[in-house]
Amino acid sequence: MRHRIVLVEDHTLLREGLRSLLAARPEFEVVGEAGDGLEAIAQVRRLKPDLVIMDLSMPKMNGVEALREIMRQHPGMKVIALTMHNSEEHVREALAAGAAGYVLKIVSHGELITAIGSVLAGKRYLSPELTKVMLDAHPDRDRSRGITSWESLTGREREVLKLIAEGYKSREIGEHLGISLKTVEKHRANLMRKLDLHSISAVTAFAAKKGLIS
């Protein structure tokens, strides 16, 4: 039985490398690819794979938001986050969104195959380098702590922030998200207030730091 996999990565060269790696193994079949979060959601809905391997920093919709939507539409879907981000916050967000695996892009091919095997077997897998982060990211740890300004943002505010950082104007954001210009401006004002940001350049810098844009 071959396991059907969808690859989600906006860098074509890396995506092609992953496809070649997996195609060389008889137990895997890459049935679909996506270059952004919205396309990922559509591909998973259409193809219903056994596993999704996805980056967290992508255009249009970042990986965490796409992951949440995929898990909402397909509870139990097995997803591995393959990313360069090794911070506790990124790991915690991805696990909370539903990722079963969190693998750093610095790993060897062998470790990635091990991660895939573990997740397909119903286990959780994190890169060995993230052992401390895995322990720190346990949900119980946050019960006595206040949420951060980033965690206070709604999903829509995060979408607006990402699109602002990508250079879209408010009217374009409204058209993209299917909301009014007035609503966009409200979300924009709210997110800048919550994050204490006062310029577009500050928003862009913040989005880059969070891995929302490359």
Q: What would your notes on this structure say?
A:
Strand 3, helix 3 and strand 4 form a beta-alpha-beta unit. With 214 residues, the chain is α/β, with parallel strands linked by helices. The chain is 50% helix and 14% strand. Helix 2 packs parallel to helix 3 (63-73), helix 7 packs across helix 10 (200-209) and helix 8 packs across helix 9. The protein folds into two domains: 3-141, Rossmann fold; 155-209, Winged helix-like DNA-binding domain superfamily/Winged helix DNA-binding domain (Arc Repressor Mutant, subunit A). It starts with a strand and ends in a 5-residue tail after the last helix. It has ten helices and six strands.
Please describe the structure with a list of short key phrases separated by commas or semicolons.
214 residues; alpha/beta; 2 domains; 6-stranded parallel beta sheet; 10 helices; 6 strands
Mean pLDDT: 86
Radius of gyration: 18 Å
Give the domain tally.
Answer: 2
Order of helices and strands: EHEHEHEHEHEHHHHH
**Largest sheet geometry:** 6 strands, parallel
Going by CATH, the architecture of the largest domain would be: 3-Layer(aba) Sandwich
Q: CATH class of the largest domain, anyone?
A: Alpha Beta
User: Span between N and C termini?
Assistant: 37 Å
**What is the β-strand count?**
6
Q: At the fourth CATH level, what is the homologous superfamily of the largest domain?
A: Response regulator
Strand line-up across the major sheet:
2-1-3-4-5-6
Report low-confidence residues grouped into runs of 5 or more.
137-145
